[in-house]
Design goal:
Blueprint: H1 2-20, E1 23-24, E2 30-31, H2 33-58, H3 62-78, H4 86-107, H5 112-128, H6 130-133, E3 141-144, E4 151-154, E5 173-177
Helix pairs in contact: 2-3, 3-4, 4-5
Amino acid sequence: MKNYALAIVMALTALSFNTKAQVKTSAQEVATPELAQKREALKEGIILNYLGVKNSLVKSDSLGAVKFATEFVSLLSQFKFKKLSLEQMNEATITREEMKKLALAIAGTKSINKQRSEMDKLSVKMWSVIERFKPEKTTLYKQVCPMTGTTWISDDKAIQNPYYPKNMLTCGEVKASI
């Protein structure tokens, strides 16, 4: 009887300890605080590398764009979507694969004009799933050049057009924020 009671006490103690060290991230999944922190760092890396590509294009630095686009693809490949229905998961996965292809196209050329062309498409795709990638304490802005209709995402309200930095650096407007 003592062994049975001792086993129950040990099981309850282990269960109590285990639940304190875990955080719910979805109805189906329990993650440790360390996993939640790792996921947040991954989201920060994705956004920082996207912004690195955008800022490289503002500076007309095609080699910088290659570097950031390559790392963007690597981090994007590690990202797993959470809290989505099956239909939403399929759509988000397809969008992620399209984003990876566009970023690989940026990484695969040194032509700044080709990189800018792919960046516009990447930005549109990125904004469609931005709420999944946005780090917690970050505000992001969807910016559009009204003369050309090109889109990009920025972490600053100030306009720095990555598509026409020589002639139209400040041409654009904030269309949305998250």
